Amino acid sequence: MATQSYHAPFDPADVAGASVLIVEGGFEPALAAALREGAIAVLDGASVVHEVVTVPGALEIPAAIAYALASEAKRGRRWDGYVVLGCVIRGATGHYDVVAGESNRKLMDLAVDHCLALGNGLLTVENDAQAWERADAKRLDKGGSAAAAALAMIALSRKFGL
Known about the structure:
The chain is α/β, with parallel strands linked by helices. It contains 6 helices and 4 strands. The protein has a single domain (18-147), classed as Lumazine/riboflavin synthase (Rossmann fold). Helix 1 (29-45) packs parallel to helix 5 (128-135), helix 1 (29-45) packs across helix 6 (142-159) and helix 2 (61-70) runs parallel beside helix 4 (95-113). The longest helix has 19 residues, at 95-113. Strands 2-1-3-4 form a 4-stranded parallel sheet, with helices on both faces. It starts with 18 loop residues before the first strand and ends with a helix. The mean pLDDT is 95.
């Protein structure tokens, strides 16, 4: 069991001028807000421009990223990275397995198929206590961890000239 937060290392100079889209599932709004707080603190600390969009839930997050990719021509540029935030809490039915599995599978497909620098802060937990332990920026700070992962991947993509 993790007892402290972990943020992937990155050099702020390697992500200078980067722009990040935060896509959050809004089904658990208080948890999403806590995750967002941690993510924004890391992005602001690296002086990275960011925008937040909220979708209904975890299953809609991959579609929102696909929309962002499809809008590249209209925007005139691509986001340098993406931070995914949200929470899926196990319930009494198998719906949890579908939501958690399909959301994460499609996020990985998008990241690999489109060479996306993606930090995944989509929590998949058994109960509220686990969710809050992970979402709270003063505890495990998974929102901050997701943002740091996205920044580390932006730096890596730039190293490869992408």
